[in-house]
Amino acid sequence: MCPGHGQGKSKMRVLFVTSEVAPLIKTGGLADVSAALPAALCRLGDDVRVLLPGYSQVLSQLPSCKVEATLSGIEGFPEARLLSSVLPDGVPLLVIDCAPLFQREGGIYQDAQGADWADNALRFGLLSKVAAILGGEASPLKWRPEVVHCNDWQSGLTPAYMHFSPKGAPCVMTVHNLAFQGVFPAAIRGTLGLPPESFQLHGVEFYGNLSFLKAGLYYANHITTVSPTYADEIQTEALGFGLQGLLQSRSDTLTGILNGIDEKEWNPATDAALAQTYTLKKMAGKSANKRDLQKQMGLQLAPETPLFGLVSRFTHQKGVDVVLEIAPRLLASGVQLVMLGSGDAEMQAAALLLAREYPGQLAIRIGFDEKLSHLIEAGADIFLMPSRFEPCGLNQMYSQRYGTPPVVHATGGLVDSVTDCDNDSLLRGDATGFVFHDMTASSLLDCAQRAVSCYQDKGKWSMLQSNGMAKDFSWLYSAAKYHEIYESLKNS
Ligand code: ADP
Ligand code: GLC
Fold first, then answer.
1. What is the mean predicted confidence (pLDDT) over 73-99?
2. Any idea where the domains of the chain sit in the sequence?
3. N or C: which end of the chain has fewer CB within 10 A?
């Protein structure tokens, strides 16, 4: 039972379907949201269960799962078991144990060489299918959800399965990133057990292929995405990735809800990953983190030198290439830069090469390192997040909470969560970072330099830090909006 559930009347039973959840398995922001949003809904009184594939990394952390059901005879899929456990914050967890599909060495979407697993359609087809079973009349569980909440393409087929076996719960489909769609050859349709009539423009077909995400967007009862600005952007040709027409046609059932952050996990006052914790009133700890970060990353121990930080997937989306392009000019002004991330092999190589030219001034760590990501949020002075597009983005919010004003491109959730620093916003008391509008190297450089000059003005800088640290990034308000959508579906 959810923590908080039982204190008041249970409002909605929700099955929250996701391919990753922190801290068990994380490749990006979806994992953070899949941990924090269900917990926030539980605090509101909802009865939420999270459904997750049983990857090796997950099962090894859940030694005492209970077997809830055997899922045999699902046409096209290997036999599986449904296990139950609990997430660290008490939210109930359901895990699909299917060794042939989920237990293997490597990443959760890709092998060790970075190639997508060849059977991803089957792997996430099973996730989608099990969610549909649990949301329908044939569920082996007594607990029946009143709404099935799907997230990204990995659970995109759930609304399609549920459409073709009526009497199930309504579905909400949340888009965390429209760039990832789960598109597979048409021939997989039969194996996945979708009827031939689903394969059409008004269905799962997308330019001759089968698209998991389009299926979700077409068949879901309600669509949400992770910021109001991104909800508008995905209806345009520039950021619709070919799905803008469908999204426009569904605009009356499309809502942008800004993500919150997990305020327990990302709190400089209690963060165990830091060299020293700190608060708005006791900022000395922040300098200790800067020193620790400089030391750990082999940078010169220079307390007054502005230190830029970046934590990101190394992809075109995140604008890491533009950061590398401006790095020589930015570093020429004497600042320091630390970058943590992994992804595109060329970007990684270019970053490492550049770091050799700036020993003590530019430090690159390739890989995924949760602890270091927290230390960068705390130890850097300024955070860089020049994403070309950003559905929501979490690091710019973490940065504000850690007193590390972010430099961001005016897109998606970055626009919705960062207020540019100028005389007016400083006077109003809502300036929290630096926003640039043209996605060019020179605009990013100008903006970063604007941040450096503001950093030199200690009075202004501390106002900026205070505004960000005092800002409410909690999930409460956004979770309530999800709850309203669930209610509206129940009553429709
Ligand atoms: P996205 O999900 O598009 O990658 P978000 O800003 O929503 O972007 O979330 C990224 C999450 O992943 C944040 O929690 C961030 O700290 C984390 N992250 C990204 N890259 C790394 C890395 N190399 N090491 C540790 N954490 C990382
Ligand atoms: C995606 C998006 C990111 C968002 C995250 C969580 O990975 O790229 O902007 O913050 O999902 O919703």
1. 96
2. 13-260+476-491, 284-470
3. C
Distance (Å) from CA 373 to ligand 1 centroid: 8
pLDDT band at 10 (very low <50, low <70, confident <90, very high): low
Is 32 close to ligand 1, i.e. is its CB under 6 Å away? yes
Q: Which ligand is nearest to the CA of 258?
A: 2
13-260+476-491 and 284-470 agree in CATH topology: yes
> Which of 71-75, 307-311, 349-353, 427-431 has the least mean pLDDT?
71-75
CB proximity list for 445: less than 8 A, separation 6 or greater: 326, 329, 330
Question: What is the full DSSP assignment across 46-98?
Answer: -EEEEEEE--HHHHTT-TTPEEEEEE---TTS--EEEEEEE-TTS-EEEEEE-
Give the residue-averaged pLDDT of 348-371: 98
Ligand with an atom nearest the CA of residue 374:
1
What architecture (CATH level 2) is domain 13-260+476-491? 3-Layer(aba) Sandwich (3.40)
Q: What was the pLDDT predicted at 491? A: 77
Q: What pLDDT was estimated at residue 6?
A: 42
pTM: 0.96
CB of 275 closer than 6 A to ligand 2?
no
Provide the pLDDT for residue 492: 79
Cα 27 to averaged position of ligand 1 atoms, centre (Å): 7
- C-alpha to C-alpha distance for 486 and 263, rounded to whole angstroms: 24
